[in-house]
Fold:
Amino acid sequence: MLAIKQLECVRGERRLFANLSFEAAPHTLLEVRGPNGSGKTSLLRNLCGLLPPAAGTISWRGNDIHTDADDYRSHLTYLGHLSGVKDELTATENLRLSASSGGLPADADAIDAALHKLGIRDFRHLPCKALSQGQRRRVALARLCLSATRELWILDEPFTALDVAALAVIKELVESHLDRGGIVVLTTHQEVAIEARMTRRVDLGQ
Structure:
């Protein structure tokens, strides 16, 4: 269970949101909506422990996420809205680096299967600077294929720069994760119909 109580976020001298409370149980899709500048990415960074809130609490399984941050991160996969791939490394090298640094399975077969799932296996030996924006995004999202054991996925604009085929793959991965009891928190400007036992929405524009 992810629980947020009376959360407040301030950036510079601007309060982005305050008194924000919600919960997400297993099998829950939590969609964060709002116009640009409303604090969607800041909220996700709060939930990941990367940005301390100005007030309020964030708890995982009843414990404050800052009390045992290492344990919390072992249950979490976070993908930001930027691809975050290194230009000089190949797709395989990028995925191996991000997986190993995040404590995810990084054996050659798992990485190869992840790249195949995202349709970029044929480009696995090319430096990422030679890939298109959409292909680079697929490299980053391939990490989800290695994250089945992480209960909580926090995804910032996961469908950006994807074609129809890649979007369908990510939708399938998210739905499979929810079906096996995971929690997914995501932001998106696109209307993607994701099947979930429970869907909740937080609108920061209200």
In short: The CA atoms of residues 175 and 195 lie 6 Å apart. The first strand starts at residue 2 and ends at 11. The chain is about 30% helix and 25% strand. The helical segments are 40-48, 69-73, 91-101, 108-117, 133-141, 164-179.
